[in-house]
Amino acid sequence: MKKIWSIGILRGLIFQIIGTLIGVGIFSLIRILMGLGWKTEPTIVVGGLFGAIFFLIGLGAFTDWWKSALGEEVTEPHLVKGFTGIRRYFEFSLDHKVVGIQYMVLSMVLLSVGGTLALIFRVELSASGLQILNFVQFNTLVGLHGMVLIVSILTGIAAMGNYLIPLLIGADDMAFPRLNAFSFWIAIPASLILLSAMFFGGFETGWTAYPPLSVRGPMGIQMFFLGVYIAGWSSILGALNLIATIIKMRATGMNLFRMPIFGWSVLATSIMALTATQLIGLSFQLVMFERLLGMSFFTPSEGGNPVLFQHLFWFYSHPAVYIFILPGLGIISELLPVFVRKPLFGYKWVAMSSLGIALTSFLVWGHHMFTAGIEEYLRVPFMYSTLLVAVPTGVKFFSWVATLWQGKARFPVPMLFTLGAIIVFLMGGLTGPPAGTVSTDLHLHDTYFIVGHFHDTMFGGFIFPIFAAIYYWYPKVTGRKMNDTLGKLHFYLMTPAFLLMTFGQMRIGLLGMRRRIADYDPNLGFDNTHVLITIGGFLIALSILIFFINLIRSAKKGELAEGNIWNSRSPEWSILPCPAPIENYHQKEIRIVGNPYDYGLAGSKFVELKDSEEKISEVGI
Amino acid sequence: MKHIAIASVLIVILTILTNFFLQSVGLLPVEASTQASIIDKLFNTHFFIISFLFSLISVFMFYSLIVFRQKKGESDDGKFVQGSTKLEIIWTIIPLATVIFFSYMGAKSLAETRKIDPQALTVNVTAGQWFWKFEYPDFDITSDTLYLPVNRQVKLLLSSIDVIHSFWVPEFRVKQDVLPGENLVKELRFTPTITGDYVLMCAELCGGSHAYMNSPVKVVTDGGFQEWVDSEMGYQDLTPAQKGEKLVTNNGCVACHSLDGSSSVGPTWLGLFGKERTLATGEKIIIDDEYLLKSIMYPKEDLVENYSDIMPPIYSDLFDDDDLKNIVEFIKSIK
């Protein structure tokens, strides 16, 4: 028992259970004192909220902040002696690399859960008629598939940002290590609460949770709202930390235009996450209050307006898709030069295009509402701003192609996934404009075409790049390489399966297949295509299973990685050993003396170690 | 330069092939309205641009991956080129101009689809969980099937009694969400051009039986439409039970209450009247006029055991007293 108690995550989970019970108890007591009976819905919301806070208390997330609030001495983050070995991943660790791995594990767990939910409803859809699910189950699975994967993506980009940014910019840690750990750990109770929606009757609304539908119906929607609300905290605080780190913690000599390009995409993403996430939290909170307290924000018969919700929701949820993809596009720009041995074409333009996408993202939310009944005249300006996104996105594509041109390409597994990402994201990009011009969108809106389109953007902008990143930086984490054959098998299985799936989805979508329906008219003749889509989905799952086997097996049995295995110029490969030491560059003073991607320029260097004399003289001053 | 020339030729060939493929594979359903033809024209422009950009990026990409790749025994770096401001400006300005031109075409296309014909036939469309109802104010007709005369513009005034639904017939292309709220009645206009049977589908997730929220749409000749109007206007001569039958089919009651004894979301009406039933509270009752009336008006009360309270409490507002009596008469008549 004592042993269990000493492990942070288990202590947190036990506290969460106790906290939930305390919340339920206090709330019921108040109701009893007021002479009211048991009511499940408000009780589980209060219990869920208490549980999340207690999780963090039990884990020890508040301990240091509490101490410093009382005026007690608190150890500086880099002097805190944490656990070592596998154990540190289960604790409230202040090391950005540990937090990065924790995020990554959570992201991969949620990826598996979210993907499995999709496999279940794909089986249902493989034939017309109702086979294994009823409507509420189907809708719950569809909604959770969406939101669980959104949280998986948010934690996945946080994993890449946390692990890589300090290494790439030559910093020893993030700007605020305690806040960093807090942002990760709050995502754990958030994910549990989100998934618990399944056990409270599910919900019927899909991930978009439009009222008035979300105001009625099963109460699982409350756990969905609460989980997303808490996960939003993780995203906002993590973004704040990344911005501060990028602005303040770069190595000597690294001005912003000498920063590895991934830094720019994380900066752009974090600006959006920091300023837009509040809107989804707010809109979900309003529906929670409407259900719990009878505040009729969105019910027309009582003075509310259902379209208002859609404005608030999409004001976050459109920038959100750029939040999801920009880090992935940054990974593409980061890896291409290494594997074609050529500079990134037009570095400054690629960097600025990320900020351009971030800026435009705030102006386009209305394109989700072309058919929603917004004011007629609003549709045209939103069409202009929407298509404008094509310009900075185009700059990225052209720059990638120009980087490839006359480059001596080599094809290890990370490069394959990088190229796959470009192709798949191209499909996502090209299928965007028909949904962006109003009159064609009147046909496409809420069909499977949209489903195919955004799966292309999510896979091209996140899934493929994150796999590239994992294969590429895995030796930095474990000191060993991942297996090449299994990696190639993963790629050559997943890419065609994925294309089959989304082409199928877009094909039937154009012909009249609606989104989010458990059953479809057999007369439409979609049965065969649905079978193909389902097969595609299962093949993707199989390929990811192979990836997981590779990931776990290579940690023990992989080939040892010695030195700069990719022959990269960036500091984490050229300076640090594998695996990266706990304190990063702490014992080594590094200085940036060139551009990050000057491959092919004889004798140039990006980073060098300050010699010891200089170091001593600096200390003397 | 030689490489660029070869790649350019490949791009032209691939663009033509891709565009031919997209145009000939039959990507869209039948064009059955004036609006569909306008919208499909824009779709075709999109398909061409997609073919071109797809070819442009993928030809350059695969060409350089194949031709310039690291050959056996090579270990040197690629050509040192950091960028070209001229090229960057070109591939910012040209897409920008294209995008603005495309938006302009999009706006024109939208305006064309929305051209108003003052002679349009007005139909009030009511959506609810999970049915469609069509009222023709000019003829005082209510129907569960949308009858439309061919080549005449129809003006739909759409309104929902509960959650958001969406009106979509793929063959007509246009789509409009149907919102609850008296101040949020939305308008949708289109002109059907081909006679035949279509299916109206709800395109916005509306819970439960959303997948089945379909209604038949019949586009008929002018003469056929007049015939239908005449036969519908004969409604006044019907018996109460016959009127009730029309009401329950037009308002979607039969989606949940079967007439043939088969089990569904709600109790079947076959032989229901006069039977004994056990309520959720355990009380036993006989189904009589009063119970039927009350169950329609206040569906959350006195539930029969094993049924959940998902029937929306909207029917006391939707129907007047005569309607309710007619419906009860109809239920009594099903034996």
Description:
- The complex is a heterodimer of chains A (621) and B (335).
- Helices cover 67% and strands 1% of the residues of chain A.
- Chain A has helices at residues 2-6, 8-33, 40-59, 63-69, 96-125, 135-169, 177-196, 220-248, 261-293, 306-340, 347-361, 379-388, 390-404, 413-430, 432-436, 438-444, 448-478, 484-511, 527-557, 571-574, 612-620, and strands at 590-592, 607-609.
- Chain A has three domains: 12-74, no CATH class; 75-553, Cytochrome C Oxidase, Chain A (Up-down Bundle), CATH 1.20.210.10; 590-620, no CATH class.
- A two-stranded antiparallel ribbon of chain A has the order 1-2.
- The model of chain A is unreliable at 615-621 (pLDDT under 50).
- Chain A is built from 21 helices and two strands.
- Chain A is globular and about 75 Å long.
- The termini of chain A are far apart.
- Chain B is of the alpha+beta class and 335 residues long.
- Chain B has three domains: 1-62 and 106-115, no CATH class; 121-235, Cupredoxins -  blue copper proteins (Immunoglobulin-like, Sandwich); 238-333, Cytochrome c-like domain (Cytochrome Bc1 Complex, Chain D, domain 2), CATH 1.10.760.10.
- Chain B has eight helices and twelve strands.
- In chain B, strand 6 and strand 7 form a beta hairpin.
- The longest helix of chain B is centred in the first third of the chain and has 34 residues, at 34-67.
- Chain B starts with a helix and ends with a helix.
- Chains A and B meet through helix 6, helix 10, helix 11, helix 12 and helix 13 of A and helix 2, helix 3, strand 7 and strand 9 of B.
